[in-house]
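Trying the structure run again after the queue cleared.
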Amino acid sequence: MVGLVEVVEERLLCRGRRVELVQRVYSYGGRRFLRDVVRFGQSVAVVPLLGREVILIRQFRAPVGGWVLEIPAGRVEPGESLEEAATRELIEEVGYRPRRLERLTSLYMSPGYSDEVLHIYLATDLEYVGSSPEPGELIEVVRLDLEKALEYVLGGVADAKTAVALLTLRLKLLGGLPRL
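Done. Tokens:
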């Protein structure tokens, strides 16, 4: 069943500050079908590790109307490398500059409707330089032992990137993460 799927037409429906919503007409096997796609691009998320503690943020998230416990994250800006974006987001949101960044994994955030690819990094050997959140970012920094962080994150409706990142880190620390 896997074969060539072609984009026949694309129409911009809406452009926001960070995303675009497009409607695409695809052709496959002589049939045409429509899909709405959120264009977002690449993003990064960072697990800052100080000994056995991870630095998380509790951030107000308008789409869910509440506060979410998560790792620092953000969009990769044009012309920026993944590592530069990870460093920038870490400094902006929690005030630490990593001397070492290691990619843990990459994943599609929600491939049913979005093209976003998230790259998750581990940040170690951290230097505190002070935070500078973007206007409108409501952030509280939270330091927790990795096991306690996993309990909190998995104890309710979890932020997917944070759950994957913390579980991946735990596997890595236990020696169970496959080499990528």
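The chain has two domains: 6-39, 42-173. Worth checking whether this holds up in the mutant runs.
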